[in-house]
Amino acid sequence: MRIDIQGIHKEFGQFPALRGVELTIGDGELIALLGPSGSGKTTLLRVIAGLERPDAGQILFNGADMADTPVQERNVGFVFQHYALFRHMTVEDNIAFGLAVRRGRQRPSRAQRRARARELLELVQMGGLHHRFPAQLSGGQRQRVALARALAIDPAVLLLDEPFGALDAKVRKDLRRWLRALHDETGHTTVFVTHDQEEALELADRVVVMRDGIIEQIGTPEDLCLRPATPFVYGFLGDTNMLAVLVREGTAWLGDRALALPPAPPVPDGPARLYVRPHDFRFTDDSDGAIPGTVQAIRRRLDALRIEVSVGGHHGPVEVALPAPAPAPEPGQTVWLRPIAHGLFPGGQGVFSEYEA
Amino acid sequence: MTGQASLSSRPLARLWPRRRPSVLPGFGLTLGFAVFYLGLLVLLPLAAVFLRAAGLTPEAFWALVTHPRTIAALRVSFGASLVAAFINVGFGALTAWVLVRYRFPGRRLLDAVVDLPFALPTAVAGIALSSLYAVNGPLGGLLAPLGIKVAYTWLGVVVALTFIGLPFVVRTVQPVLEDLDKGQEEAAATLGASRWQTLRRVVLPALAPALLTGFTLAFARAVGEYGSVIFIAGNLPYRTEIAPLLIVIQLGEYNYAGATALAVVMLVIAFVLLLAINLLQAWSRRRLGGV
């Protein structure tokens, strides 16, 4: 099912949670809503479900306006952050709940409901646990029961609020892969909320980055990583260094040094911010157009050496990541840094250098 | 024979698993104190009641407790208490719901008002209620043309018992309702459940143990109530006379044995009822998966 989100505004008291959100979700897509807490991502999910009423704007399901369709009739499968399982019901009764509350001829017989519940339990790899109560399950198992319960009503869209937030890292990773496989198998249009960038990038077809109730960027994981649209996205997705520079006649100046940056579209003259990720710096012997600095500290990580380089001016130390086997400089040594990829933002829209193939 | 042998060879600890590892030491001491305290405070006076009642011959005891007036009084006491407890469960739960789920001016005041029946001397409550519901009182005057008489009728007994029992239900349901995850109701809604279905299948089962506790407390309190009822009941023998009043009447006639005999009967009935409700409660709690 296609979902069109048009000009959605939502306020809680004086606090604007959503400020004009526009988004189209294609049939069968797996979309991540990514952002820090308070960015409005959960509110947007609840507006889609019909759990919150927008102050302005429209939600269209396959072109049909949902404004007057209550949550009970929207046929959405919603998985809550804390699962919200019915504590007094067995796993089987939890899953069959959506079928049991149907009316008239649409309500399957008890045997059919049981069969469907068992089938879904197999799907979420929990066969044989139908008689348990939620209190007798682990966090990951509860999560899967919540998912099975949402799938039982054959939802037009699956909405998940921080689905892996309360689980430990190992379980989270397994469930993530499993959810992707499940999506590919069942083909539900799926929207999930997360504040974990790794989760969003690994799982989603497209990622929607939100901040303060507006969408900062919509794009594939590839887009987001290589072409962040705003300084916020640059900073939110992974580590980055920010340097205040001045652009004059197409050249970026750091203090009194003209920087030789990789080829990128021109930026208007004036103050700008230069973003470079730690692994996009290279040490160089050629001082021309490079950034001079002094090595302050070296830290060993699993995947790389992290080197802090002070570059003078008002900046804190710049972080440089060296691939593990590379020869490391000594603390106190003077080095020259050259970015091999960067983002340059003159206040508004930014430009990027592409990695050379 | 063989079964008995294997039973006796089993370690004693497993037959009587009284010690489990605990973060707080002193199981023996605290258990001893609790038993002693309950014995001194509750069991000793009750035993005295039974002892006093034993002063009657079995025939006299039987004649007293099967006297039509006694039976009528017991019926009024337990019947009106049950009805009052049921009313309190319904409206007490509603009150708790309003106090927990809605924010409105004066909420804290209303919250405090709930406790008033706890604090008010019951005689004051009785006098207030009877003057309110008397045929010439402000509420009784309104009801009289409709043919409804409250003061000095069975209905009056129920009103008084409902009044004193209300806080028990509100105060037991309130914290449970506060802990109740609103997500469960929203989950039910997304799964297509109507409001009524959500209430019946999700909210009420979650509240059931608390409602039962509230019911038990309100009921127990009502059975023992004396002060407020006698003012509004009119105390007509066979009609609106409650069992505690009958006991007081016996005492007034210096018939201590008779009074304690009635007390014994009340105690036994109340104990059986409370035990039954507690078992029901344990069962409903287990269904919540709390284990």
Walk me through the structure:
- The complex is a heterodimer of chains A (357) and B (291).
- Chain A has helices at 41-49, 91-100, 110-123, 139-151, 169-186, 197-203, 221-226, 231-236, and strands at residues 3-12, 15-25, 30-34, 56-61, 64-65, 76-79, 157-161, 189-194, 206-211, 214-219, 241-248, 251-254, 257-258, 270-276, 281-283, 291-300, 304-310, 318-323, 334-339, 343-345, 351-352.
- Chain A has 357 residues and is an alpha+beta fold.
- Chain B has a domain at 75-241: MetI-like fold.
- Helix content of chain B is 77%, strand content 0%.
- In chain B, helix 10 (154-179) crosses helix 12 (195-224).
- The A-B interface holds A 49, 51, 70-78, 80-88, 97-98, 100-102, 133-136, 149-150, 152-153 and B 181, 183-184, 186-194, 197, 201-202, 205-206, 208, 287-291.
- Chain A: One of its GO terms (molecular function) is ATP binding.
- Chain A: Residues 3-237 form the ABC transporter domain.
- Chain A: One of its GO terms (cellular component) is ATP-binding cassette (ABC) transporter complex.
Rg from alpha-carbon coordinates of chain A: 25 Å
| C-alpha geometry of chain B | globular
Element pattern of chain A in H and E: EEEHEEEHHHEHEHEEHHEEEEEEEEEEE
The CATH class of one domain in chain B is identified as Mainly Alpha
Query: Taking all residues together, what is the mean pLDDT of chain A?
Result: 88
Please outline the major beta sheet of chain B: none
The CATH homologous superfamily name of the largest domain in chain A equals: P-loop containing nucleotide triphosphate hydrolases
Oligomer: heterodimer
Could you tell me the number of beta strands of chain A?
Answer: 21
CATH architecture type of the largest domain in chain A: 3-Layer(aba) Sandwich
Largest protein interface, residues of each chain:
A-B, 33 and 23 residues
N-to-C span of chain B: 36 Å
**Proportion of residues in helical segments of chain A:** 10-25%
Provide the gyration radius of chain B in Å. Answer: 24 Å
Termini of chain A, distance in Å?
38 Å
